[in-house]
TrEMBL record:
Domain HTH luxR-type: 805-870
Protein keywords: DNA-binding, Transcription, Transcription regulation
Source species taxonomy: Bacteria, Bacillati, Actinomycetota, Actinomycetes, Mycobacteriales
Native species: Rhodococcus wratislaviensis NBRC 100605
Region entry Disordered, spans: 860-880
InterPro entries associated with the record: AAA_16, P-loop_NTPase, Sig_transdc_resp-reg_C-effctor, TPR-like_helical_dom_sf, TPR_5, Tscrpt_reg_LuxR_C, WH-like_DNA-bd_sf
A GO molecular-function annotation: DNA binding
Composition-biased stretches (Basic and acidic residues): 871-880
The protein's name: Putative LuxR family transcriptional regulator
A biological-process GO annotation: regulation of DNA-templated transcription
PANTHER family linked to this entry: DNA-BINDING TRANSCRIPTIONAL ACTIVATOR DEVR_DOSR
Length: 880
């Protein structure tokens, strides 16, 4: 899978390529260039790529590569061009130069010299002469920090050549390279991890990719590459790093090993662990860096140095070294939760006896920083060491958040009410109830709350009412949820966790009821309550509830702002929280019509999704299916929808209308508009029956966008009672479509555009184009179609039924186009009739009339005419 280095894409070097080209061809004012940089950043590749692409045929490259072994030979790098050995050394040099710059057919010569810092003196003199006398343009590479012959350093010091410092690839550039090499996208956390290890060094990157692919730790899961486990340093990479590090004295090696085990360390602690002289020697050798902060934090100069040293060290020695450092950290002044977590992790991986109090406190610190995987690991170790309620409760919360619901249920069941305080009973009940809601086990929810009610005083039962509000909200009963949540929030002695559950439930329920304008102060109260360390996790949950309600109402830019704020806040947090933030950004981008951005965020959550059943999985899949369907990718949408269907056993019935709308978009992408509109109406009927009026608007407008003309009356009613700009715009769209009013449709299009929903604006404009055309207003139709296409382009290439009809004017009716589209997919007349609940004779009649209108005589030709895709058959099938 990983190709040779010369076949890797050259990313992030456009500016350097342009500069080298200018110096070679003479437009840059100098006769060449010196490319400097650390080992492995791609100096040689850049030089060769640049020279090989300078007017091929008119320029001939001459390549010389210096090596340490050839350095002992005079003119060793240019031995290929030494033809005789006259007694005068200057004549030898002149002969080499003449041979280098002589070219057939009046071609020009460009000379490349790789690793010029390793040149012998005579070879270096040849290069200097070429540059000084402008005999030929010269492209030279040197390794930064390495001693070089005087003639080589004179190239830039005396300004014969310009020197350019080549930097390692940025994180984005590294991801681009890996994506191109793998032929697919790497999951976000894995891409960040890969860059963190290699720091953009292309040589390290290539070796590491080859090793991880060969080991099976780097694998493809659908469209995304996943990287699991810890990397192993291959023999080739280890040799490469060892060569760069060199043979280290024992005391300097101890400095590197200490940082390999636990970087960063303060300079003083590193000195205490080793010695001042050893630290100074390691720093002078470029093996470590020491920053200018108050603590003077010391780190390895490159992460791969640590990987290589750990690979060479025995596990027993590593455990002892970590124990030594953990003990030193325990004696150091308290510097906050980060060092607490580091000390706990080092203790776990050392020869020290685990301290359950330390592990519990560290688990709390990890939870507070939203590192849920680490919090679960530390809490688990604390429990194994004898820790009690706090560690168990925290681990139960982490397991639930990580999607390991069954494990969380089993663990929390071990906590008995007799051993807990009243507040602990209530918080455990809330956590257990939440897990059972996710698992769609409503009976267990009732039993948990009943048990907690019997074990606690009546004046504390407001917390249990908050739990019931959560159940009502997520089971799709918003009226009951509002009543329960408001009652809970008015109750005394509400626990902090249950207060947040009540607030989140209220935000969800008000959003469903169409009362989004009441949400802002409730959300603000929740964000304020979630600022405490142990409750920070709930901030992400509240943000999800908040942005969903804003999107439903049509407050698209506000939803995007809230999602972005959370995304930025957790950008460096690994695991589940990062996945959820990608989901939030993907949903916000979809609502704003940014399909490519939405797909990028949502596909990053692809690989972890099986862990996050329940809301995370269902909401993510609904959004991703819609992105694919609205992009016209029916096959991918169907595949993902099958995964979504597999989660039907989960709870969260309040998402049912969105699920139906998602199925509508998939059917529409496949051309089955009758079925698509039925799905949208099923969602609307469910929403209306459960008072989810904002979702009813969304479903009815989905049907409208798919061409349904029956939704106007109900949408006008909803526009009078549902907050936000979406309902009035949807009512305007539906009314104008039913009345065949193109001006009204364009007005609706502008309303949606002003709202921040260009996808809906596109469909309304497309309907206006089709309506104008039916009225014979061809000029106006072209103008409206151009607007629809412009909006589609801003959305990243959207493709919906309305847009496709506007783009492909034809004499066919909408029903005829639908039947032909289904026939083009290979469905028989009987299958089409069953899907559309029509008779086979009716289907045959529509196909026959379509053939007469278009002058086409076969199903395949009709399909090509309507869909633009040719079926792979030698002969067209007859209409029957």
């Amino acid at each position: 899978m990983v190709s040779t280095a010369d076949r890797w894409p050259l990313v992030g070097r456009e500016e350097e390529l342009h500069l080298i080209n200018a110096t070679i061809t003479g437009t840059g004012g100098q006769g060449g260039i010196v490319i400097a940089g650390p080992a492995g950043v791609g100096k040689s590749r850049l030089a060769r790529e640049a020279i090989s692409h300078v007017r091929p045929g008119r320029w001939i490259p001459r390549w010389a590569r210096a090596t340490a072994s050839a350095r002992v030979l005079p003119l060793g790098a240019f031995a290929e061009w030494v033809t005789d050995t006259p007694s005068d050394p200057l004549l030898v040099v002149r002969g080499v130069i003449d041979n280098l710059i002589t070219a057939p057919n009046a071609a020009k010569i460009a000379v490349g010299v790789d690793d010029a810092h390793l040149l012998d003196d005579q070879s270096a003199f040849v290069v200097l002469q070429l540059a000084q006398r402008r005999l030929a343009p010269v492209v030279v590479t040197v390794r930064t920090g390495e001693p070089a012959p005087d003639a080589v350093t004179a190239l830039w010091k005396d300004e014969h050549l310009q020197r350019v410092e080549l930097q390692p690839l940025s994180e984005d550039e590294t991801t681009q390279v890996v994506t191109a090499v793998l032929g697919g996208r790497l999951e976000t956390a894995a891409a960040h991890r890969l860059w963190s290890l290699t720091r953009g060094n292309t040589l390290y990157l290539r070796h590491l990719l080859e090793q991880e692919l060969a080991s099976g730790r780097l694998t493809r899961n659908r469209a995304i590459w996943e990287w699991t486990g810890n990397p192993t340093i291959s023999a080739g990479l280890a040799d490469l790093i060892s060569t760069q590090i060199g043979t280290l004295p024992a005391d300097v090696g101890a400095v590197v090993d200490a940082l390999a085990a636990a970087e960063p360390l303060t300079e003083q602690m590193l000195v205490d662990l080793t010695s001042a002289d050893a630290v100074q020697a390691a720093h002078s050798a470029g093996l470590i860096t020491i920053d200018g902060s108050v603590q003077h934090a010391a780190r390895l100069a490159h992460p791969m140095y640590g990987e290589a040293r750990r690979a060479e060290t025995t596990p027993l020695r590593l455990r002892r070294l970590r124990g030594h450092i953990a003990t030193a950290l325990a004696s150091a002044p308290d510097s906050g939760p980060r060092d607490l977590v580091r000390r706990a992790v080092l203790t776990l991986e050392s020869n020290l006896t685990p301290d359950p109090t330390l592990l519990t406190n560290a688990a709390v610190a990890a939870w507070s920083s939203l590192d849920l995987d680490l919090a679960e690991r530390l809490a688990h170790a604390a429990i194994a060491g004898g820790a009690g309620y706090e560690a168990t409760f925290l681990r139960g919360g982490a397991l639930g958040a990580l999607g390991r619901i069954d494990e969380a249920v089993d663990l929390l069941a071990q906590l008995t009410v007799e051993d807990l305080t009243d507040d602990q009973v209530l918080d455990v009940a809330a956590l257990r109830a939440s897990n059972f809601v996710i698992l769609n086990r409503s009976e267990e929810v009732g039993l948990v709350l009943l048990e907690a009610s019997a074990a606690t005083p009546t004046n504390l039962h407001g917390s249990l009412i908050a739990c019931r509000a959560l159940v009502h909200a997520f089971e799709g009963r918003p009226r009951d949820a509002v009543v329960a949540a408001q009652r809970a929030l008015q109750s005394p002695n509400l626990t902090n966790v249950c207060e947040l559950l009540a607030l989140a439930s209220l935000v969800v329920a008000l959003g469903d009821l169409g009362k989004a304008d009441q949400i802002a102060p409730i959300a603000d109260r929740g964000y304020g309550a979630a600022h405490s360390a142990l409750l920070a996790f709930y901030r992400v949950i509240l943000c999800d509830c908040h942005t969903r309600s804003l999107r439903l109402a049509g407050y698209v830019s506000e939803a995007n702002a809230v999602a972005t704020q959370t995304f930025d806040a957790v950008a460096d947090v690994p695991g589940w929280v990062h996945v959820m933030s990608d989901l939030l950004m993907g949903q916000a981008a979809l609502a704003a019509g940014r399909l490519n951005e939405a797909r990028r965020h949502l596909e990053q959550t692809l690989s972890p999704a099986p862990k996050f059943l329940g809301y995370g999985g269902v909401a993510w899949l609904c959004a991703l299916v819609q992105v694919r369907a609205m992009s016209g990718d029916h096959a991918a949408a169907v595949t993902i929808l099958q995964h979504l269907d597999s989660l039907s056993r989960m709870g969260f019935a309040y998402l049912t209308p969105e699920y139906h709308a998602t199925r509508a978009w998939v059917a529409a992408a496949g051309g089955a508009l009758t079925q698509a509109i039925e799905h949208a109406h099923q969602g609307a009927e469910h929403a209306r029956a459960h008072h989810q009026y904002a979702q009813e608007v969304m479903c009815l407008h989905t049907a409208t966008r798919l061409g349904d003309t029956t939704t106007a009356h109900r949408l006008r009613e909803l526009a009078e009672q549902v907050d936000g700009p979406r309902a009035p715009a949807a009512a305007r769209h539906a009314t104008a479509l039913a009345a065949a009013d193109p001006d009204g449709l364009l007005d609706a299009s502008h309303q949606f555009e002003n709202m921040g929903d260009p996808l809906a604006a596109m469909d309304a404009a497309a309907h206006a184009a089709t309506t104008h055309r039916h009225h014979g207003h061809n000029g106006s139709a072209l103008t409206a179609a151009a607007r629809a296409q412009h909006l589609a382009d801003t959305c990243g290439g959207a493709s919906t039924p309305a847009l496709r009809e506007a783009q492909q004017p034809s004499p066919l009716t909408a029903r005829q186009r639908e039947i032909i589209t289904l026939a083009a997919q290979g469905l028989t007349n009987k299958q089409i009739a069953e899907r559309m609940t029509l008779s086979v004779r009716t289907i045959e009649g529509h196909l026959h009339r379509a053939a007469l209108k278009t002058g086409v005589s076969s199903r395949d030709d009709l399909g090509t005419l309507v869909t633009g895709h040719q079926r792979p058959h030698d002969h067209g099938h007859q209409l029957e």
